[in-house]
């Protein structure tokens, strides 16, 4: 069965770190550029980071650049998002998704449209 499954979310204090994982089943994740999105309560879903199929191109939103790192482990069909220096504003459900039309990250990588596969999300809560 084709699916994406996120894991690694949880409760963390401000300044802490979490590592999210997105594991693909039924297809090869390295066939598609992969994007991490997040959606905070009452807000629109926003792109956080994107990685090309090779892993050589990575992109980040202004709000997370310097704090988050995206990476691939193609042997395990997995994309990770290492999050550090977490702030309460990072609290959201985090989703991974694949780009059905591209092996790279285009100029609109941060937009949620045009994705072939979505995970169901993992909740990250940053609170003291």
Question: What would you note in describing this structure?
Answer:
The chain has 128 residues and is mostly beta strands. It contains no helices and eleven strands. The chain is 0% helix and 47% strand. The strands form two sheets. Strands 2, 4, 5, 6, 9, 10 and 11 form a seven-stranded mixed β-sheet that branches. A four-stranded antiparallel β-sheet has the order 1-3-8-7, with no helix packed on it. Strand 7 and strand 8 (78-83) form a beta hairpin. It starts with a strand and ends with a strand.
Give a short overview.
By secondary structure, the protein is mostly beta strands. The strands form two sheets. Strands 2, 4, 5, 6, 9, 10 and 11 form a seven-stranded mixed beta sheet that branches. It has a four-stranded antiparallel beta sheet with strand order 1-3-8-7, with no helix packed on it.
How many DSSP H or I helices? Answer: 0
Distance between the termini: 39 Å
What is the string of SSEs from the N terminus onward?
Answer: EEEEEEEEEEE
Number of strands: 11
State the oligomer.
Answer: single chain
Average per-residue pLDDT, rounded, comes to 96
Structural class: mainly beta
Major sheet details: 7 strands, mixed
Low-confidence residue ranges:
none
Short key terms for the protein model shown above:
mainly beta; 128 residues; 7-stranded mixed sheet; 4-stranded antiparallel sheet; single chain
Layout of helices and strands, plus pairs?
Layout: E1 3-7, E2 10-12, E3 18-25, E4 34-39, E5 46-51, E6 58-60, E7 68-73, E8 78-83, E9 92-99, E10 115-118, E11 122-126
Parallel strand pairs: 2-11
Antiparallel strand pairs: 1-3, 3-8, 4-5, 4-9, 5-6, 7-8, 9-10, 9-11
